[in-house]
Amino acid sequence: MNKKTVRDIDVKGKRVLMRVDFNVPLKDGVVTDDTRIQAALPTIQYLLDQGAAVILMSHLGRPKDGPDPKYSMKPTATHLAGLLGRPVAFVGECVGPEAQAAAAALKPGELLVLENTRFYPGETKNDLALAAQMAALADIYVNDAFGSAHRAHASTEGVAHFLPAVAGFLMEKELAYLGGALEDPRRPFVAILGGAKVSDKIAVIDSLLDKADVLLIGGGMANTFLKAQGLAVGDSLVEDAALDTAQALMAKAGSRLVLPVDVVVADAFDANAAMQTVSVDAVPAGWRILDIGPATVARFREALTPAKTVVWNGPMGVFEFPRFAVGTVSVAGILAELPDATTVIGGGDSAAAVAQAGLTDKMSHISTGGGASLEFLEGKVLPGVVALNDR
Fold it and tell me: Using one digit for the tens of pLDDT, what is the confidence trace for 6-20?
């Protein structure tokens, strides 16, 4: 990574505006999953220890028309104070006189959380006037919000035009693991892709086929490949518009693209539906594929056992239904047992599945950004990263 980080600048006595990803689930004004807040703690703690006054900003949810109390950042400030065991100030705006006064009054070693950046329509439009107002609150900008780095917003890209701009530790770690997997992987390099739609991942498959030694395909997207091979898939989710693309990808990949050989089917899309395991060429009419089967898990294990680098994005089935989570949990288990492999889990559903299996601490790196990690794997440049200062 050729971008400057917080280690490369002197922050003592400076006001630091830090973009975090505190887009966390709330219930009745309480944070119910603080994974993303925890991920930002090393950078926050480092800046405080170095004598900086730290101002945090983030988006939360998708408020429609300006400020909406249910999307306020205040609960995250309260939660953060509990995690750090120190006071955390909160101000009910992101820019404006109150925010300016609160930022100006902040002393070294103190912490302030600003209100939701998306309460301002200029945020998602990357309005440079709004970005300039954000920048006016501080001396230095730190971006530690990898989960939002694929968006060119005022708080992720625009503000970097007005202040010295560097990466936090989480951003650095994400780029090191994902970048390392793509640019210089230890081989064999195996990629696992799942999830519902091929169309969401065409560019990822295409990009990974140039880099990976083996590509394992599961989840709903595998159905489209199976149908493209001429197999009957019953009432399974299929993207008919992507059949030609699937055929082209299979032709390009040859034996490097590995598809399921057996599947778990259900007679309805229901957690308690009747289920059976069948070969991929024996899916009954009216039934639908909801998971990969045991023979497929064994085949995937064979491909993964020698792997030295693994990137996984997307579940192998409808893992929200416990009876159809077996394939996904099995793959997580295989990765957890690899003795000498770098295992990188794309955020979103894959991260949730690994957490559900209780194997989070067995993986080398779990990305905090589903959409951002996907775009990174596609080979796209991330605006929030490009905007940071080069070393």
Answer: 999 999 999 999 999
